[in-house]
Amino acid sequence: MKVTVKELIRQNNEKRKLLTKENQKYYEDLLVYIRANLSRDERATEEVLLEMLDHLLEAQKEGKTAKEVFGKNPKELAEEIIASLPKESWKRQSEFILEIVMTLFGWYMIVSGIGPLIKKEDQTIYSGTLIVSGLLLIASLAMFIYFVVVLLKKEAFQEQKKKRTISILFGFLIAGLFALSLIVKFAIQPFGASFEVSYYTIFGLGCFLLLAAYILKKMREQNT
């Protein structure tokens, strides 16, 4: 039976606990940097990472360190590994993006719709405002994913002090983006054609999108 990607990740998580502190840091920096390249085939990535981990564990039994096994330049090694990995198919990348978008909109609609649901108040939706809000939400998601990937790559192979600094800067950036989204939300006056929706519609659509995202995720996992 073919081992799933989820199982490969689970095995990796368990086996990493057997590494020494020094070897664990070296390997996990490699792991984070390589996994941050979302355009590479997920299965191939996890198989290579697990193979490297097994090799390192065997070498560790002989008293060798990760630097002795893989070299003193882990970033260069990571780049070579990434270059050798096959690219993820457009179909799987599209499915992943769709899953993330549905999850984002699902939670957004649940949060937006829970108030009217409790109060049992029908809502007036303005088409122009709806489109702009949707585009801003997608743009924010794209920026968030981009900066998460950048952060992961920046933090890899850095000293702990530098990692904390990068994380703090990233936190300020996310807070700034969140504040900007609130400003935009309240600054834009409702516009466009309007229509009424029942008090449970928005909340219900949010639940539907989350369910659809969950089903899509399970389907992706079964096919890897």
Automatic annotation (TrEMBL):
InterPro entries: DUF1129. It comes from the Bacteria. The chain crosses the membrane at residues 96-118, 130-152, 164-187, 199-216. Keywords: Membrane, Transmembrane, Transmembrane helix. Gene3D superfamilies: c-terminal domain of poly(a) binding protein (1.10.1900.10). The keyword Transmembrane applies. PANTHER family: MEMBRANE PROTEIN, MEMBRANE PROTEIN-RELATED. This is DUF1129 family protein. The lineage of its organism: Bacteria, Bacillati, Bacillota, Bacilli, Bacillales.
